[in-house]
Write a structure and sequence with these properties.
The chain is mainly alpha-helical and about 90 residues long. Helices cover about 50% and strands about 0% of the residues.
């Protein structure tokens, strides 16, 4: 089976992260990025990353839609920022 390169979230959203995406998966990641951005507030990405036990590049990639955040990244950010960041499913 061929290894198909999947597009990055920002590639599935024109005007990342301000504009919604038509792709449901990219939209969830976009909302996550907005939640992270809000939780970071006026703090630096480097200081937040250090406090969360992550690389600042990992945090920047999540914010910029240049990665599909994994459970490790999400849980570290949620614990370090002391808030739920992953969007809940809509019914």
């Amino acid at each position: 089976m061929a290894n198909v390169k999947r597009p990055l979230p920002f590639e599935l959203c024109t005007g990342w992260p301000e504009n919604p995406s038509d792709n449901p998966s990219a939209e969830v990641v976009r909302q996550f990025a907005l939640n992270v951005r809000s939780a970071i507030g006026g703090n630096s990405v480097r200081s937040v990353a250090a406090e969360c036990g992550l690389s600042h590049v990992t945090v920047l990639n999540a914010l910029n839609g240049k990665s599909w955040p994994d459970a490790w990244t999400i849980s570290h950010l949620e614990r370090g920022l002391n808030t739920e960041l992953w969007p809940r499913a809509r019914s």
